[in-house]
Amino acid sequence: MKFCFKTIAAAMIAIVAASCSSAEKMVQKADGVAVSCDPEVLEVVAGGIDATLSVTYPEGYFNSKAILEVTPVLVYEGGEAAMFPFKYQGEKVKDNFKVVASAGQTVREQVHFDYVPGMEQATLELRGVVKYKDKKWALPVRKAAVGCNTTYMLVDQDGYISLKKDNYQEIVKQTAEGQILYNINSSEVSASQLKSKSLKNFVAAIDEINADSRKTVTGTEIVAYASPDGGEKLNTKLSDNRGKTADKAWGKVTKGKNLASPEVKSIGQDWEGFKELVENSNIEDKDLILRVLSMYSDPAVRESEIKNMSEIYTSLKSSVLPELRRARFIANVEFKNYDAKELVALVDENIDVLDEEALLRAAKLVKNNEKAAALYNKAVEKFGSDRARFNLGVLALKEGKIASAEKAFAKVETKDGDLQNALGVIALRKGNLDKAAAAFKKAGTDNAKHNLGIIDILNGDYAKAAQELADLKGCCFNKTLAFVLNDQLDEAKASAKCRHSRVQYLKAIIAARQGNEAAVKENLEKATKDKFFAERAPKDVEFMYYK
């Protein structure tokens, strides 16, 4: 009996020893375990690093009574980040870990790390420990991935915002006018009309134009009319005849004024002039007259309906219709406004001659923001310019003064899409992406659309970013970056037109991804003249095969 117990005990010790030895062999055979990572080069997306690990355990490798703990660790300059270990068990272990068959099996796991500076050249390691009862064996450290791509972090996060446009006209269209009045059913120009105040003012205006080097007469016209009483056919002929007599009168009135012959036009019945005079009159029932005008398109019916209103018609006969029996003398004039150089000079020499539009334009021409701000403040003080208030906020943002920008935008009275976009830019610069996105969507402007593209890049939605930024004019950086991130390399190459060092850096990345070593070298030489890119390039995994 003693012999029997000793034999059984010895057998059990042998079994334990064999199991223990088998578990230890997992360390010895670790080289036979295949490890891969997707992506092979890690990438930071929206502040996180995500990858899929695949580990294949060959047949006969995994001890059926062992437990394996595998800890993914990201080792980087300045430290390391470790996940909670993945735990696996053999087929005979009674626990709740993932079972790995001794016949061989591939397991896949998702890994995630939060990015911290220094991870650009990180190494993803797998550190394993085999456990059997109270014993432990450390597996050789396996490298799963090397390097970490941070290209998306190059995005320009300042946001797109534009100054409010001015309506300054370098060439201002003007007219000088006078008119001849005719008696009812007459096309004869009376002597008194040739000496009327209206024509005297017209001649004086022509003299003033000829004396002003900034003004040029570009064309002249005579426009003849008939009042809308009487038959349409009669009035058409009357209007034509008035054009002819007015043309003769023009020659007398403008003699020696160096004006080209006028183009003579005959309008016939002047219903538009009639409507305008009625609208601006004090006639008690003018609304009724205007309704009649809108109800009937036939001139004869209009006239008949108005005549039916006898009292009203009497008032029209005395105060409105006589003013429509006329011929207008018109000189079309171009006024050459102050050019850019003159505007800048006037800022210092005679700023008070500048109107609101001139002040807004001058603010864009001066060389520094301090002077521009002074001009905007002048426009606010003198004209209550809301566009100037908005532009003061834009200037503050350009200088990075967010608090000052907020104060300026708070004073803007026009609550439009531009203001919403501005508030979104402030939220973007403060890092509040959700608030910024909401403001940009509400704004609905082109700038807001492009700003949504910035948020898409920061959130890792590169396809949408490329769409949002595709029609961006001017600065090409974020647009090119979006194309690069979305692997649209041909589009990225075509859009990279600026000569700025950061665009040259993107061109080097494009060349690296396309395998063009010469272009990588050429563009990096230009980009690394900037200290930031000179320090970044040696650590950038985009160029890991070009060092």
Question: What does the model show?
Answer:
The model is unreliable at 1-19 (pLDDT under 50). The strands form three sheets. Strands 4, 5, 6, 7, 9, 10 and 11 form a seven-stranded mixed β-sheet that branches. Strands 1, 2, 3, 8 and 12 form a five-stranded mixed β-sheet that branches. A four-stranded mixed β-sheet has the order 13-16-14-15. Helix 9 crosses helix 10 (356-365), helix 12 runs antiparallel to helix 13 and helix 14 (417-429) packs antiparallel against helix 15. The protein is elongated. Among the domains are: 2-149, Immunoglobulin-like, CATH 2.60.40; 171-336, 2-Layer Sandwich (60s Ribosomal Protein L30, Chain: A). The two termini are 76 Å apart. It has 22 helices and 16 strands. By secondary structure, the chain is an alpha+beta fold. Helices cover 47% and strands 20% of the residues.
Could you write a compact summary of the structure shown?
The chain has 547 residues and is of the alpha+beta class.
By DSSP, the count of extended strands is 16
How much strand content do the residues show?
A: 15-25%
Q: Helical element count? A: 22
What is the CATH architecture term of the domain at 171-336? 2-Layer Sandwich
Q: What percent of residues adopt helix (DSSP H or I)?
A: 40-55%
| The CATH H-level homologous superfamily of the domain at 171-336 | OmpA-like domain
Average pLDDT, all residues: 92
The rounded Rg comes to: 42 Å
Uncertain runs with pLDDT below 50, 5 residues or more? Answer: 1-19
Shape: elongated
**Would you tell me which CATH topology of the domain at 171-336 applies?**
60s Ribosomal Protein L30, Chain: A
Helical/strand content category: alpha+beta
What profile does the largest beta sheet have?
7 strands, mixed
CATH class of the domain at 171-336: Alpha Beta
Question: What gap, in angstroms, lies between the N and C termini?
Answer: 76 Å
